[in-house]
Amino acid sequence: MSEVEETRGYSGALLGAIALAVLCAIGGLIWTYTLSSRLAHQETALAEANQQSAKIQAELRETNARLRVATDEMGKSLGLTQKQLDARADEIVRREAAENRRLDAAQKQTAQQVSAVSSEVSNVKTDVGGVKTDLGKI
Asked: I need a labelling partner for 105 at 20 to 30 A (CA). Which of 20, 36, 57, 121 fits?
C-alpha cells in the first residue's frame, strides 16, 4: 500500500499545483483585463490630447500669421510716421537757420544804424560846440 499512498500523495500535490496554476492563470487574466481596459482608456485620452494639440497648433499658426500681418502694418505706419517726423524736424531746422540768418542780418543792420546815428550825434555835437563857440564870441 505504500505505492498507492505515494500516488495519492503525488496526486494531491499535483492537484494543489494545478489548482494554484489555475488560480494564478485566472489572476493573470483578471490583471490582463484590468491593464487592457486601462490601456484602452489611456489610448483614448492620448488620441484626444493629440487632437487638441493639433487644434491648438492650427490656432497658433493662425495667430502668428495675424500677428505678422499686424506687425507689418504697424511697421509701415510707424515708418510713415517716422518719415513725417523727420520731414517736420528738417523743416524746423531750416526755419531756425533762416531765422538765425535774418537775426544776424538785422543785428548787423542795427549796428550800422547805431554807428550812423552815433556819427550823426558826433557831428551835431561838433556843430553845437561850434555854435556855442560862435555865440561865446558875440
From this structure: 121
Locus of grid cell 494554484: 20
Return d(Cα 2, Cα 10) in angstroms, integer: 12
Q: How far apart are CA 24 and CA 113, in angstroms?
A: 126
pLDDT tens figures, 5-25: 554 556 878 888 999 999 999
Buried b (16+ CB within 10 A) or exposed e, 62-82: eeeeeeeeeeeeeeeeeeeee
